[in-house]
Structure formats: C-alpha cells, structure tokens
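Standup notes
- HV: blocked on the assembly model, inputs below
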Amino acid sequence: MSSAPLFFHDVPLNGGDAPTVTLEVPAHRTVSIVGGEDSGVGLMGRLALGLITPSSGQLAVLGTELATLSRRELLAYRRRVGYLPAGDGLLQNLSLRENVALPLRFGSDLSEGEIDSRLNIMQAAAGLTQVGHLRPAQANDEQRRRAALARALAFDPKLVVLEDPFVGLTDRVARSILEAARGGDVGQGSRRTVLALGPSLPASVIPRFEIRYRLVRGVLQQEG
Amino acid sequence: MIAPISALGNVGTRWLSRFGALARFLLVTMGSWRFLPPAGRSVVRRVFMNQVWFTAIQAIPLIVMLASILSFLVISQAVRELGRLGATELIGSLMVIAIVRELGPLLTALTVAGRSGTAIAAELATNKVMGEIDALEGMGIDPVHYLVLPRFLGAIVSVFGLILLFDLVAVLAGLGAAVANGMASPRYFDIVLQSITFRDVWLSVAKGIVFGMVIGTVPAFHGLRAHRAATQVPVAAGQAVVVSIVGIFLLSAVFVALYPLN
C-alpha cells in the first residue's frame, strides 16, 4: 500500500462499470481535481472521508485502509482529516462560533474552559472574532467559508479535503482560504496536504496548486 | 397466483427490514450516551432542554384543554346516566380505567406525535437535505449524539410529564363535572381515590416512557433516512407521524394484552 496521505487505487467513481481512478496525493502537496457534474469529482471527497464506500478498488487515507474500519473507528479517523464540504455544511441553528466548537466538543476530552480558549484563538486566526455570534444565514459567503474552514482545521489535520472551496469568493478571499488550508510552508512544501475538488478553480489560485488534474467521465488527466 | 403472494412477501420483507433497522436505531441511540465526551454532554443537555421546552412546556395549554374537555364530557354524562341507575360509584372506575389509564396516555402521546414528532422529522430531514448530516459525519461527529439522543431523551421526559399533567387535570375537571351535576366533591374524591391502584399509576408511568421512546425514535429515524431533496422533508414528516401513531396504538394494545383490566 502507498505511503501517500491519500491513495485511490482502481476506484470506480460512477458505479461498477465506470472507468476506475488511480490517484496518489503526495504529502505536503497542494492538489486540485476539477471536473463537470457528471465526472464523479463530487464523489471523491465523500469517498476520501469514508462517507460512501467504493464498490471495488482500494482506498487508503493517512495510511488507513477505510474498508477495514468499524463505524467508531471511521468516526475517529475522520477527525484526523479536515473536511470542508460543498455548501459549507454549517448547522443553521448554531452561531458561527458554535459551529467551529462542535468538533472540539464532540471529538475531544477538552474541558469547556480549554475549548473556549482554543475557540478564541481559532476565531481570531480565521478573522471571525467580530462575527462569531452570527448564524450562518446572517453571515456572508466569506464569513461562512472561513467558519467552515476553521471547523475543518479544529484538530490541525495533516490532510485537508476541500469541496467547491472557492465558489462565490473574491480572488483575494479565495487565496487567503487556500493559504489557511495549506497552513503555511515547510521545507517539503505546504505544512498540510491539500486536495481541492470542484467544477473549476479561479485563475488567481491556480499557481498555488502544484499538481492539477481534470476528471473527464471518470478518467483523470493531469494538467499544467 | 404466485405474483400476488410474491408481492405480499416483498412488502412483508420490506416492513420487517424497516422494523429491524428501527429497532437497531433505538438500541444505538440508547447506547450512545456512553461514548459522549464531557463537553459533548453539555451540548446534549442544552439541546435536551430546548426539546423539553418545545415538546412539553409549549404543549401544556393544549394538554390542559384536551384533558379538561374530555374529562368534563365523560364525567358529566356518566354522573347523569349512572345516577339514574344508582351506580355513581362506577364513576371512579370510569375515570381511572378509561381516562387515567387508557385515554390519558394515548391522547397525550398522539398529541405529542402530531406536534413534535413531525417537527423532529422535518428538522432532521432538513439537516439531511442541507448537507449538515454529512458535514457532521465528515467531522467525525456521530449525528446520533448531537441530533438524536437529546431529542430522544427530551421526548421521553416530555411525554411522561404531560401524561401526569393530563391525568391530574382530568381528575380535577371530572370533579367540576361531578359537582355541576349534583355530586358532592368529597364523595367524588372518595370514589376516584378508592378506584386508583398502584398498578394504574405504574402503567401510566410505563406508557409515558414507552410512548416517549416511540416519539423520540421514529421521527428521528425517518428524518435521517430522507434523501437529499427538498421534497423529502414533508415525506419524512408524514411517514414519521403515521408510523408513530400506528406504533402508539399497537403498543397501547400490547399494554392491554399484558396487563388486562381488573
């Protein structure tokens, strides 16, 4: 099995008869896969998180083969991966701050005081200090996306999977979201391994992606 | 000839499979408290309190009204008719068996299923449609912990409390009806208190817990099973309330079968 943080081997994206995908996302790299609605790109994030199970092939994330995990192990595994779902996935009846707090409250043994301190730091880093009390419906696209990303990074994961991360954002905000997901630079590349998925990328962020693929009817084509 | 039997078998298998999934969902929900971290428990407590507020506290006027009207009508008729036969002491049995033991729990549960069961199913189905369930799963948060467990516990506490309220109001409204029809209040209390046994109280409590479990489980189950389409929200709410009502009636019959009337 590959030692890459994310490894798809012969995984069909659109049912059993569809072409299979083999992909290795190397550590400390920022990788994008774009494709149309019917390409299967929308399923790759859900597959990587173990939200759906491939009908065949092998899928390993951070050295863990997802098919072997029990439900509880799968939930624990997902806390090691940052996930920004398409549409943000923020809970509408919670404030942005409460949304960011959810993984800490349900996925750690931290006390309320420790969670509050950590939240203050996360809010400040995400630029949400002034708007943390807003509900998602009251916030703009940028604030919602920043909150969803802060929530995805709550446990400082090594791998981050972003679905449609730049939709509705200006170039400046798109770049800043990507930089926050990458977590800065280290000797080998970005601190985190990032996989961004979606129908397209804004031109301003394309240079930040070291490896770019286009998915056409289940077949990966490297670009650039 | 074989086709109808096969179709019937398919329907039966589907129902059995759904019932099995529902039973498993109930067991998972009941066992989920053990795996909650301390900070998660405080969130669950908060959602639980909200659920009790919406399900129990806001339903108090409705339950008081239903219990008063039902009891007043039944006892008024009974005092008149039984009085003519000289059998007014049977009012106690009527109050305890018909209202406290059977109709109180049944009507309360049906009211809560209609009011809060639909709300729970619609809320969770909306969570599903909006992608919030997938987002929770993607963060490693079990939706049962955050969404189902507090509603399940809230429904049990609410139904239990509302049944006790229904019974209390029914007894008091029965007093009003009895007095209005010429019966002295001490005699009314004598008759009713003589008819109430520990078993009646225990059955009311047991029904409160069991019906609460149905209302806490079935709507959540249907809400979480909704597909990601807006049209699924009313479908889930409709299925939830129908299955809850059928479940409550069936369990009411089971109670009568297990604990027949004296």
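- HV (later): unblocked. Chain B touches chain A through 23 residues (CB under 8 Å). Residues 90-129 of chain B form the longest helix (40 residues).
- Next: hand off to the docking folks.
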